Amino acid sequence: MNPYAGLVSRLRAAWLAGRTRPMEYRASQLEALGRFLDEKKKSIMDALAADLHKPCFEVEVSEVILCKNELNHALSNLSSWMKDEHVDRNLVTQLDTAFIRKDPYGVVLIIGPWNYPVQLILVPLIGAIAAGNCVIIKPSEVSSCVEKLIAEILPSYLDKDCFAVVTGGVKETTELLENRFDYIFFTGNSSVGRIIMAAAAKHLTPVTLELGGKNPCYVAEDCDLQNVANRVAWGRFFNAGQTCIAPDYVLCSQETREKLLPALHHAITEFYGANPQESPDFARIVSDKQFQRLQALMDGGRVAIGGQTDEKERYIAPTVLVDVSLSAPIMQEEIFGPILPIVTVANVEEAIDFINARERPLAVYAFSSNKKVLNQVLKQTSSGGFGGNDTIMHMTLITLPFGGIGESGLGMYHGKFSFDTFSHHRTCLLRYTGLEKLNELRYPPYTQRNLGL
Length: 453
Ligand code: NAD
Description:
7-stranded mixed sheet
């Protein structure tokens, strides 16, 4: 007997009883989630400090406020999102009612990663609740303090018959995935994404996969390079680089590189002081395994800025590498840490070729004071999202969808896109029962009459 079969059946029974469907119910659970965020903010801060040494400001903006914005947006728009969407009819259906019903899927599974362990569980959960589903959440075991907080405290805020938390790692998730779900929402790396999709395929369960990759960042010669350096350094070193949409590497000319390096050095010193290890505003690497992986990645290039490490603290200084080998692991795998390689290219065309020769990333960034250059990169590349003259900020706008393409994922969410992701768009046609004579045109036996001749 599967250890989670009983739990899944309990949620399915609540789903079949229609418990999560009424708007008032959905709103009450969202409000309860809001109370969790307000009342347990200190515990959330403490858990993230213990797991990642995450600075308070970063917790505030990238975990708490982001969830609250999603929550308030869902609460304000729930009634309009839930309304049937009436559509145009043709001549034959003029007297009928044709609409799209936003039906909940049923029992949903949400699996999260460790880098933004609160936001990346709660934002999908908000969408799934708003859409009227029952949900099992599986936070990452790597960010163990947040996992504990979510498992021990969150259930006391929510309806236990409809929402549950499962803890654990590979073994537990594998067992959980043997059960039939109606939707699976996964955030994590691309190789695990394949495992999730294969497990979902056994039950023909639809999936959203929010994955990772290497996000290129092209910098043209014509920029204010201090402005570029501030925005790139912020995006790369926020949460010590453990961000799925962080710029993974810079592409620029040799000449730009020489000017960008002192600007990056200036930005890093302004942000974190002369010794970032002493800064309260710089996070740590989540685990020893990740620390060792990142330390090894540094061998792929020459350190131009930073490079210091402290294994005891899992500290890696904000680091910029130059002269990187394109075949080294640093240019082959997602870095996911505070290391920024700079790769030189002759011009924007070469940068575009470089990007297109690799997997489609979650984000492409381009910096230029010339809109034509931004548009050229936008038009000639493909990625989940695009940021012109900044990094990361495109994911903060609730009116924009967020998701990957190809190797960086499939599906999208945030704001109304979350509601739509967790809703089955059901085709509904309610026919007029009169004028049966007209219907005879489609009934057999087929003769010239059927063709209206
Ligand atoms: P991960 O894929 O290792 O783990 C994610 C979740 O999957 C965890 O809950 C984990 O317990 C579970 N898991 C791991 N291995 C599994 C297996 N073999 N079978 C079943 N379940 C398994 O990812 P991570 O290391 O936690 O997160 C980092 C990755 O996530 C990076 O690649 C990053 O780019 C990506 N990410 C993407 C987004 C996005 O929105 N697209 C956001 C954050 C992180």
